[in-house]
Write a structure and sequence with these properties.
Layout lengths: L6 H18 L3 E6 L2 H4 L1 H16 L3 E6 L2 H10 L6 E2 L2 E2 L3 H25 L4 E5 L6 E5 L8 E6 L2 H8 L3 E5 L1 E3 L5 E3 L2 H12 L3 E6 L17 E3 H9 L7 H13 L4 E6 L5 H7 L6 E4 L4
Length: about 290
C-alpha cells in the first residue's frame, strides 16, 4: 500500500463503508473457512483481522472451519493410507479419531487463539458440544462420514448473546456416542439456516461461479436458485463446484438471505464483500418469489 494514502482518503473510505456497517450491525454472518486461505499464514491473519473488525462493529460473526490438509498431514505422519469410494474419503474408526483430534483440537483452538490475539473474544466448540450437529451414517461404505439429521443451535446462540465469536469444527455425533466427519460446506449451510443468517460466506479456492472455468474474468456476479439448476444442466457449474452450489441453495431454502462463494486467497475479501460497493465472488439468492 502506498504511503501517500492520506488521512482524508482514509476518512473517505470509512465514510463509504458507513451504509454497509449500518446494514450489518446486529445481523448474523456465517463464514465457512478452509482451503488455501487456511494454509497460507499471511492470509489466515487477514481473515482473522476481517472477522474481528466485523465483530467490533457489531456484526454477529460465526466461523465454521474445515481442516482437510491438516487431517491428511497427520494421517501421513501416522502411516495411515487414505482410501476413497466414488471420490469420497472412507473414514474408519481410527480416521474419525484423527479427524476429531485435528479439527476439534489443533485447528479449532489455533483459530480461537488467533482471533483473541487480534482483539476478538472467541470461543471454540465442535459439532459434538451440546449435540450441535446430530448425525447418522451417510453411506455404510464410507464408514463414519456423517449426514446431518438435526442442528441444535442453542450453544451457538448462547455464545453470540454473550458477545463471543463462535468457532465451530465440523465433527458430528449421534445418540449412541459415535463421532462423524461432516462436510464443512454442508455444516455451514445447516448452521446458517438454523440461525436465520443474513449472509453465508463460503471461502473457496476460485473466484466464484465462472461462465468459462478457464477464464477468471468470466465471473457471474449473481445467480438465483433457479439459475443454479439451469447452469448445472448447461455444464457451467460442474465438478467440485456442484456440491458447493448445492450447499448454497440448501442454505437459501433453510432461510439464509443470500450466500456468497468467494476466493479466500484474495486479501481481505470478506471486507470487500460486506463493506464496499465492489463486492467479491458470486452471490446466490432466492430470486423473486
Amino acid at each position: 500500500m502506498s504511503t501517500e494514502f492520506s488521512n482524508a482518503q482514509r476518512a473517505e473510505v470509512l465514510t463509504e463503508a458507513l451504509p454497509y456497517i449500518k446494514r450489518y450491525t446486529g445481523k448474523t454472518v456465517v463464514v465457512k473457512y478452509g482451503g488455501n486461505a487456511m494454509i497460507n499464514e499471511e492470509l489466515k491473519m487477514q481473515v482473522m483481522e476481517d472477522i474481528v473488525l466485523l465483530w467490533l462493529i457489531g456484526v454477529k460473526v460465526v466461523l465454521v472451519h474445515g481442516g482437510g490438509p491438516e487431517i491428511s498431514d497427520l494421517m501421513n505422519r501416522l502411516g495411515k493410507k487414505a482410501e476413497f469410494v466414488d471420490g469420497l474419503r472412507v473414514t474408519d474408526k481410527e480416521t474419525v479419531d484423527i479427524v476429531q483430534m485435528v479439527l476439534a483440537g489443533k485447528v479449532n483452538k489455533t483459530l480461537v487463539n488467533l482471533l483473541e490475539m487480534k482483539g476478538g473474544k472467541a470461543m471454540g466448540i465442535s459439532g459434538m458440544d451440546g449435540r450441535l450437529i446430530e448425525s447418522k451414517i451417510k453411506d455404510e461404505r464410507l464408514g463414519y462420514v456423517g449426514e446431518i439429521t438435526k442442528i441444535h443451535i442453542q450453544p451457538v446462540t448462547d455464545l453470540l448473546e454473550k458477545g463471543y465469536i463462535p468457532v465451530i469444527s465440523t465433527v458430528g455425533c449421534d445418540k449412541q456416542g459415535n463421532t462423524y466427519n461432516i462436510n464443512g460446506d454442508t455444516a455451514a449451510a445447516h448452521i446458517a439456516g438454523a440461525l436465520g443468517a443474513e449472509r453465508l460466506i463460503m471461502m473457496t479456492d476460485i473466484a466464484g461461479v465462472l461462465r468459462d472455468k478457464n477464464d477468471p474474468t468470466s465471473l457471474i456476479p449473481e445467480i438465483t436458485v433457479c439459475d443454479a439448476k439451469r447452469l448445472q444442466d448447461e455444464g457451467v457449474i460442474s465438478g467440485g463446484m456442484i456440491p458447493k452450489v448445492e450447499c448454497c441453495v440448501e442454505a437459501i431454502q433453510k432461510g439464509v438471505k443470500n450466500v456468497i462463494i468467494m476466493d479466500g486467497r484474495v486479501p481481505h475479501s470478506i471486507l470487500m464483500e460486506l463493506l464496499t460497493d465492489e463486492g467479491a465472488g458470486t452471490m446466490v439468492t432466492g430470486g423473486k418469489e
